[in-house]
Amino acid sequence: EAGVVQSPRYKIIEKKQPVAFWCNPISGHNTLYWYLQNLGQGPELLIRYENEEAVDDSQLPKDRFSAERLKGVDSTLKIQPAELGDSAVYLCASSLGSHTGELFFGEGSRLTVL
Amino acid sequence: GENVEQHPSTLSVQEGDSAVIKCTYSDSASNYFPWYKQELGKGPQLIIDIRSNVGEKKDQRIAVTLNKTAKHFSLHITETQPEDSAVYFCAASKDSDMRFGAGTRLTVKP
Predict the structure, then answer these.
(1) How far apart, in whole angstroms, are the C-alpha atoms of residue A69 and residue B11?
(2) Could you read off the pLDDT of B53-82 as tens digits, one per residue?
(3) Could you say which of B32, B42, B93 has the minimum Cβ distance to residue A107?
(4) Does residue A46 surpass a pLDDT of 90?
């Protein structure tokens, strides 16, 4: 069974440019997460979806970040415009649903903003 | 919200020795405590987890203990091997809201 798939794996952009990351969760997983991981730090939650509903986006910087999960399957995270401080790894994870525990992570999308 | 603190940030041991990583959490309602291992360039992968109704769980060379009263939990790795070298994260979760510690970089020297 395929795991969580993220693309692109690496992205280098100039500041003020837009960027988008895509995530396809494990089939049947209702809950989808986007985490930000800065170098040497643990994952920090950006947004959590239950099916197509964003149930926790309190940590998402809404002035420049947006996310969507149309049809409750794959998801896109967008940054516009990107800033130097956005350089990080963006991790997507999925789980079966509430109360079930284990998160399955993708390999991440590493963003470098020049 | 939940706050998870993890220490040490780095840990170096000789092959065959034991390694212990400790975490504390702030929200007494958290009920699920997983440990993840992250290798370079990869996403975190679950290695062991424990729920709040259990005090200890073991899986071969790794074990986790939970003290709900003190709100802390620990990862124990025995007979460490070079392939155990990685970054380890603890996490605490309540109703699918999972928060992570800052990580421990474990180095096992041959």
Answers:
(1) 39
(2) 889 999 999 999 999 999 999 999 999 999
(3) B42
(4) yes
**With bands split at pLDDT 50, 70 and 90, how would you rate the model's confidence at A72?**
confident
Q: Give the residue from A57, A61, A55 showing the smallest Cα distance to A47.
A: A57
Of B4, B42, B49, the CB nearest to A101: B49
Nearest chain B residue to A45 by CA distance is: B99
Give the residue ranges of DSSP H helices in B2-65.
none
* A102: nearest CB among B42, B46, B97: B46
For residue B101, which residues of chain A lie inside 8 Å, CB to CB?
A: 42
What is the token pair recorded at B67? Answer: 């003290």
Nearest CA in chain B to A4: B43
Amino acid symbol at A47: I
